[in-house]
TrEMBL record, chains A, B, C:
PANTHER family in UniProt: BETA-METHYLMALYL-COA DEHYDRATASE, MONOAMINE OXIDASE-RELATED
Listed name of the protein: L-erythro-3-methylmalyl-CoA dehydratase
InterPro entries per record: HotDog_dom_sf, MC_hydratase, MCH/BMMD, Thiol_ester_hydratase_Rv0216
Organism ancestry: Bacteria, Pseudomonadati, Pseudomonadota, Alphaproteobacteria, Rhodobacterales
Record CDD domains: FkbR2 (cd03451)
Pfam families: MC_hydratase (PF19315)
Domain of life: Bacteria
One annotated GO molecular function: lyase activity
Length: 344, 344, 344
């Protein structure tokens, strides 16, 4: 049995250690098509070579969340196989679009450790970088997870908690080489709303709902080579339910947000995010967005800082996300804070 | 909430108006593979570059119904989001095969309007044209839908009902450039039956059945970027059922028809069609075909006019489609009249 | 009804006959992506062009089991449509990797016939060869099935039972042109274990489980253009269950075996195999492997002969596969004997 990977426990991480994750992955047109089958994704830049070409790119890049999921998936065997909870994201930035034919790999540096006071688990902070076949970074983000200790006798490491930005600063957002919205075709994109049409505090109900099936979330999660048992094995949890990968909820909510944010073409940063409650097959997912901030970047490109919330249940209206106890209400699935690029 | 698209109501259409639909779409090998996973499609021309090359084409084009679904999907947000019923098709013609790498867009012209006598809805007739990245048309068809009025006070438009051909004339069928069945390999195609082997009135039971799952029809319908709520949201209908996109039934029936029509390689026209009854997950779909007509086109290519019927339930035999009241019997899902190309 | 294929019956096969199977199939990036969505496949050689290139190949070939499934699927309409049972495999060899863009076709030679003593069915042995667009063989294997007689009056053929090797000899294993593991990157591949680290008799529990959905196995089985009714039509069996294609179990088990056999990069032979019990949706599949033999092939490549067992149910431990009556225990789904290539 010793040849299989049991995953790392809290005491197996050392501050400053760089973990090179396994299984580089070449992405191509198949992943793009599956993304369109799994999610109601319609943003024109990720749908049409012609549209993307008119925006200055060399054809249509793969959806930014494909990059995220593939890089994240690679980290699972090393970072979160024995994780009790996926606690947060910060300082996420997309650095370069990924095109069909690119090969991604990932590595993570341990940037923070803190054993919990009960001595049975601890927090692990990693900065993960995804790179393409040229070695250039395509995505960079911090996440922290709570990991069980395997050996309770192992000594606690010195506590180091990284200093993380609450929000990626607009000047740190990376505009892909060549991108221009100067000749943007709003009709082809599906909506007339420009960056300047959105106001801080504005809330957009994305209207549509999607009921999730077991086969769908498993197809998606496997596609990213994410192997966490809890998503696939109905005998793993006592209740016989398969927990849906949080990234499936992110992609579904982002795709639903087309309706009202059709021109928020590219994701450029994740400021933070919480998987507020577990999602299971049979849940009907809806989404709404709150405009948190806006930053002009170039003459024709602006960034919107958006709070994307996914909820389940037929009511699913915008409203309080948390109860008086400060905890997320049970119908809230996702609370994601990100920056997207739009035509000015 | 004003940034989202609520869809057009009957009073929002004007005769002669041309609506350019959103989100151009580049199709590639991923869509082909998904089509083969979603439907038991086996027609050799759409399966093998070598077979298609021997028929004079530059490799294997995407299934003709992929073209139809993608173009149809683009029209949904503008034409049928508030449709009460999808009433009919006419004068549909495939004009040019679509290959991996092509980018499709669509526009529709309003060619007919008629307010219903109750004043709460009306018929909208549109001629939809799909084009590739060069602007050349690949598909052209008329469909008409019943659309709700949003403002009951809006004046009724003048009634205009287009004069539509009951059948596309054989001389109007478009044979793809270069297509020849002179060196057709019947063994590779799977059946020995030539165009001349089929007789008017002949009925072919396609034998196989396929039980449909929720995940499958949703994957398919999303792949075509068709966003109609009723297909995805189990909370939308009072009975908690998701209505299966009618095009999913068309593709399933067409694929099943391989068994008996393996050499009906290409669809070239839709003369008419009715989605006779709703289809839901769990239904087991079967299909049969009646040969309605035959027309020789070239020395080696003939066209068959075929009536493709999809039914559900284990009985599913050919027989009466309609009851004494003239309405489709409950087990009938599809009644489609089309032209296909076969080797003579 | 005469135009449809009812399949061959036992009396329709003649010794020495070569059956050319229908519908050549071009495979591309879409099939690769779907394979990754359907199975938790992570072997680096089939995941990354860069990794495969470093192993001397021209990019990443499609998973070896894609080749097997596509070739097998082509044989179904001619070999197993009226099969009562799929009894065995022997002398299977992969002869050449298949790359995106290749077109596969298949033919089978009848190499054995034996009518059963009850006179209602018989054994048919075929050697099936898959070829690419150049005509070069990519896969070759023997399987035998029990097929019903259609006409009970038909005379019994002379009995011929082919002499089949119990194991493909190491010297008959085909190493793909150019393959070298001299510069193998174990970190990228995911595990440090070399060929020499495995010992005969060693058993590896692959740990992970996967609960199978109807939509998944039907998507997979259709993708291989395998049309056997029993996989798709819930009304076909009296119990209303759809039997899962045995190849789906093979692929799932092989993919799960990454955990402990990440470096068993390529399948090169099937020595034998049994689909021990039927698999249905809802089953949770687990797998374990026993190392049966090892053979060095080149300075840097070795072959392991592996017994891959798939079981269902939460217990699913390694242990007896058969009861005292010599029959497989009910939880055993697959017992497959194959050779794989590993870095020495």
């Amino acid at each position: 049995m010793s040849k299989t990977n049991a995953g790392r426990f809290f005491e197996d991480y050392a501050l400053g250690e760089v973990i090179r994750h396994a299984v580089p992955r070449t992405l191509a047109e198949g992943e793009r098509a599956l993304y369109h089958a799994l999610y109601p994704a319609r943003h024109a830049l990720h749908s049409s070579d012609a549209f993307a070409g008119a925006c200055g790119l060399d054809g249509s890049p793969l959806d930014d969340l494909i990059t995220f999921h593939v890089v994240f998936g690679k980290t699972v065997p090393d970072i979160s196989l024995n994780a009790v909870a996926n606690l947060g994201y910060a300082e996420g930035r997309w650095l370069k679009p990924v095109y069909p034919g690119d090969t991604l790999s990932a590595e993570s540096e341990v940037i923070g450790l803190k054993q919990n006071s009960n001595g049975t688990s601890g927090l692990v902070y990693v900065r993960t970088t995804g790179r393409d076949q040229t070695g250039e970074p395509v995505l960079d983000y911090v996440r922290w997870v709570m990991v069980r200790k395997g050996n309770l006798e192992a000594p606690a490491p010195d506590t180091t908690i990284p200093d993380l930005a609450k929000v990626v600063a607009p000047e740190d957002l990376v505009i892909p080489d060549g991108l221009s919205f100067a000749d943007y075709d709003f009709t082809a994109a599906g909506e007339p709303h420009r960056w300047g049409d959105y106001a801080k505090g504005e809330v957009i109900d994305h209207v549509d709902g999607s009921t999730i099936e077991e086969a769908e979330h498993m197809l998606a999660t496997r596609l990213w080579q994410n192997t966490a048992k809890v998503h696939f094995d109905a005998t793993f949890r006592e209740d016989g339910k398969r927990l849906i990968y949080g990234g499936h909820v992110i992609s579904m909510a982002r795709a639903l947000s087309f309706n009202g944010l059709a021109n928020a073409q590219m994701l450029v940063a994740i400021n933070g995010g919480a998987h507020a409650n577990p999602c299971f097959a049979g849940d009907t997912l809806r989404a709404w967005t709150e405009v948190l901030d806006a930053a002009p970047l170039t003459d024709d490109i602006g960034a919107l800082r958006l709070r994307l919330v996914a909820v389940k249940g037929p009511e699913a209206l915008a409203g309080d996300l948390k109860g008086e106890d400060g905890r997320y209400l049970p119908h809230v699935l996702l609370d994601l804070d990100y920056w997207a690029l739009m035509p000015r």
